[in-house]
Amino acid sequence: MKIYHVVSSIDPAQGGPQVGCLRLAAAQAALGHEVEIISYGGSDIRQRALRAAHDVPQLAKVRWHLLADPDKIERVLGLRAARALRNVLKDASFVHIHGVWEPILKHAARIARSLKVPYCVQPHGMLDVWSMQQKRLKKRVALLLGYRKMLNGAKFIHTLNTDEANLLDPLGLTPPRLVIPNGIFLEEFADLPGKGYFAERFPQLQGKRVVLFLSRLHTKKGLDILAAAFSMLAKSHPDVDLAVAGPDGGAKDGFVSLVTDLGITDRVHLTGPIYGAEKLRALMDAACFCLPSRQEGFSVAITEALACGLPVVISEPCHFPEVRTAHAGAVVSLDPANVAAAIGDILDDPGMAAIMGENGKRLVHENYTWPRVAELTLQGYASPSLSAATGSANLRVAPDHS
Length: 402
Description:
This protein is of the alpha/beta class.
């Protein structure tokens, strides 16, 4: 097949859609398909993306069509992207669209329809109830101005978990929903580094245990919940500090201010964005991973933490109940007290933490790998039974541990 992935940006600082797009494309290319990515991404972003994905197997087999970074007019109209897509998609067998609310994505769907090329839309959590409540009026207007047509014209909606699929119900979309999660490349976790990363970067952490947050610093990631939870935990665990790693998604200043107000500045350490080998070193050096998000599609960071044998504390809106059923960590409400208690339980029982770590490794290695994800998406692309006429039933092709 000749597969085109369309995403608004390949900047790793933008989070899940970019990370998932690159890795899925690489996994499909490894299976012998011609795979290309179309995106905005000037030279700086391209270099940053290549550094972040340096160890992704088979990524060199993927061809990139990168447009110059959009100016204000291009962000609104996407006319330059439309011209490029019109030329590139002529020989496509299938188009995989990552995200929702960008003109480049709407143009990709429109051009695919005009060429009678089937496509799917992978919202990456952008259509669930919480996400739709953000800038609600703007999104409702956007649906009227072509984005609903983009969604309803898809062969299927690629959701990352059953909860995300069910949360699409209020929109009344017509295509079937195919549930396929994200994954990992086992090769990236075959030779894991040793400990010492945090003490090396922050000498004051020598001899301390670290709770690690690894994601964009964005409101939806629950940084305020994390700060409140850690302020509770810090009182009873003087040997534990919090490391917050990730690019600023608009919530950094508010988080720093809250940490100051809570009087825990000396116990909280911001590393900035970390990728590749540096990210693995951080995961291997932490005692616990915590992501109390208000909304997630399927967090690659959680999957990577599990693959490193790190027990995790995640919120229910992360939509990863397998963590609980596999006894690989704790799935809790967004109440800071519950988050703090779950972290404390893991820190206070090293034996249980070790068992959780092994369970998490097994869960990911057996069920969530990019080659398997690639096979499932290809089955969806080729299936003659999938179309808008199928209706909006959830078709789960991922492992089910519930």
